[in-house]
Specification:
The chain is of the alpha/beta class. The chain contains 15 helices and nine strands. Helix 10 links the parallel strand 5 and strand 6.
Length: 335
Amino acid sequence: MSFTEKSRLKAALAGEEADRSPVICPGGMMSAATTTVLKEFAGSFHTDPLVMAQVAEAIRSHTGFENLGVPFCMTVEAEVFGSTVDMGDAGVEPCVTRYGAEQLDSILDRPLPDPAGGGRSAVILGAIQELSARNQEVPIIGNLTGPISLATSIMDPLIFFRLMRKKPAEVQSVLDYLTDYLVTFARNQVAAGADAIAIADPTATGEIIGGANFRRFAIPLLSRLIREIERTGAGAIVHICGDATVLLDSLNELDGAAFSFDSIVNLAKAKSVLANKPVMGNINTQMLHTGEPQRIRQYVNILLQQDIDIIAPACGISLATPQANLKALTGAVKG
């Protein structure tokens, strides 16, 4: 069988055999939009669907990654729920500058947004439609901010973490409400043409919320998101930051997704625990930023020898990452 980039990633996400591992950078938190690429475009690459689609195509052309991914940040959903976002520029990523809520109730009091109704969520949908129309054999990856990370982008994380302990039922209601929105957003992205949805929940780590809270709050929410994405026919990727080794037993309860890990995680160990589940990663992003291409190629070869299912950066890369290093990564996988 002759594989295209799309069929190769589809096989990897389904745990099926392919000619080799795909090499991707999903977008969202794990975007390969570097200053080198962004400076070629006007400053509307976060707000104009046509420009966003062009940037996604330029990223693939400059780097060799075998996918197209949008958006290039993880502030879209927070803005939809009222947070103020500084859009940055070609050298600075977008960031939340003011939280949209001070209390849990004020999140629930807001009518559930319609992702297609306007704002930057609609920009993402428009960009996916444009990419889908122009790229038949290249997988398009849409992105979601995970529920816990979204909650801590809408209200002060320290307050939210305290409420997880003091008012767990109220926190659960908010997380369920946000997940309602994320489910709809995921469905809309697939309907627009996304072949897979990547969920990045960097706040939901063992180091930050602890293993017990991860099992109590994160696992049911991620399970629901994966299940709903599966129902659309799209693939799912879940990225957990930090040392997720202590979370592997909990993650093993989730079916239907590939799991992406940070560079601190031993992928061979993760693969052995997550039996029959696709494992993705985990090229150190500091090495991609400052390392030598030969060292990057050597690390890629180690992952390939371990039969890692999908090769990708370990986390979000620096905007200053040299294109030569990203090409060394993708070139090593492609041989």
